[in-house]
Amino acid sequence: MSTITASRISEVVEAVPTGLFIGGAWLDGDGGVPVEDPSNGSILAEVADATPAQGLLALDAAVAAQKDWAATDPRQRGEILRKAYELLVARTEEFALLMTLEMGKPLAEARGEVAYGAEFFRWFSEEAVRIAGRYAVAPSGGTRLMTMKQPVGPVYAITPWNFPLAMGTRKIGPALAAGCTVVIKPAAQTPLTTLALAKLLTEAGVPGGVVNVITTSRSGAVSEPIIRDPRLRKLTFTGSTPVGQRLIEQSAQQVLKVSMELGGNAPFVVFADANLDRAVDGAMLAKMRNIGEACTAANRFIVHESVAAEFSERLAQRMGAMKIGPGIDDGVQVGPLVDAAAVAKVSELVADALDSGAKVLTGAKTVGDKGYFYAPTVLTDVPPTADMFHQEIFGPVAPITTFSTDDEGILLANDTEYGLVAYAFTENLTRALTVAERLETGMVGINQGIVSNPAAPFGGVKASGIGREGGLEGIEEYLETKYVGIAL
Ligand code: NAP
């Protein structure tokens, strides 16, 4: 049962402009792209389908606006971002509902994403006025060394479907603060949130051409000419590693500055001395946030053999008791996966693990005959050779394996091409710090199942990416350092 009425849904969806937002105007595309509600397969809306030529038109607009935007006072850019933050918080319910409808996450989580996403505007509104270079005397004396920070120039931002708001604000916030203009392309499956955001940014005072939005069913054909255009100066991408690799290749032609937030395969390591209450709470968050469809989702549970049975039982009890259903229904904790292909992939990975000898403690099945639901699943005795230990599951499945020594646990944790985030649970400070140093990831959560924080540098190493978003580091991705040598 939901307290959200059909007329409320129509009101919120119909308030979203569905055109291409280019140079401050809403334009038609070449036909439309349907946006599906994954909880029931119904079509929520159709958004404009941009052609490659219209993609370049959006870049024209960003290029035309770049000089004036870079010349605005930092305080003015900060004030606009601050206003955008306030508007977003005031419209939490509308943005949360849109995300639940187009992506599937439960409303409570969607509200959490609005709070998280809005914080990037607040954080970077505060950073806009703290962009500074330095001044030094050369070691040999005489020459003075000065650096200045300048906006890199027009940015192309490509975002995924799993966090439709926050992945956009995490890029738009620092770009605008630094003085860069933006063309943003959301995933075709979840364009409504970004289109609603463009409307909000205009209300906040962002001038026409500073943020442009293109939606398209042909992401490759539309993106490549933009990336290869010498007027573009920065590409920021969040999505899968194979697509990121292709985009890095395309970026090589004009030696584009790139940020890549790519896939993950997070280990969740529970040591013998862990506080199991905290470990199970942390596991629920690390695994079930966003229905497991997060790059930061715990993908491999590596648990000390002395506590594995108790940890597994307790996790299975919690996961098995979760309420599954459409994200707009009251009390739902597990919404649908994004599409039929996601359910098929999760089912295949589970079948492979079972063939390899894994045992089911809970779940391991699809749910219902409408929408794309998969039951929260806990598997034990999963051999480290199983496919799900080497690929992103992107669903509500927790595979558990065991280890006996710290060295063995860390070896297992690092046995992946990815390096986004790792979680470790221990009550021993020395072990926590040693493990944090030895884990080959860009981020580590100690005794906590979530690391995302607008004030912290988010990003990965190895096949998980290049660059950092958020924190003091986030704005650097949109700035160039110019050195000026001055002879005295
Ligand atoms: P994806 O298929 O790589 O898509 C991501 C974005 O790239 C979408 O906007 C997509 O548009 C676009 N795209 C796809 N092919 C393209 C091409 N050839 N040229 C230009 N753009 C292209 O990934 P996804 O399945 O949507 O998202 C899930 C992935 O994102 C997971 O691997 C997850 O780990 C990763 N992720 C990483 C982070 C992080 O910060 N590290 C955060 C969230 C998600 P269309 O969908 O419209 O084609």
Task: Give a brief rundown of this model.
The protein has helices spanning 6-14, 52-71, 74-90, 92-103, 107-127, 166-178, 192-204, 219-228, 241-252, 276-288, 308-320, 340-355, 406-413, 429-438; strands at residues 20-22, 25-27, 32-36, 43-48, 135-137, 144-151, 155-158, 182-185, 211-213, 234-238, 257-261, 266-270, 298-304, 359-362, 366-367, 373-374, 377-380, 397-403, 418-419, 421-425, 443-446, 461-462, 465-466, 479-486. The protein has 488 residues and is of the alpha/beta class. The protein folds into 2 domains: 6-262 and 464-485, 3-Layer(aba) Sandwich (Aldehyde Dehydrogenase, Chain A, domain 1); 266-453, 3-Layer(aba) Sandwich (Aldehyde Dehydrogenase, Chain A, domain 2).
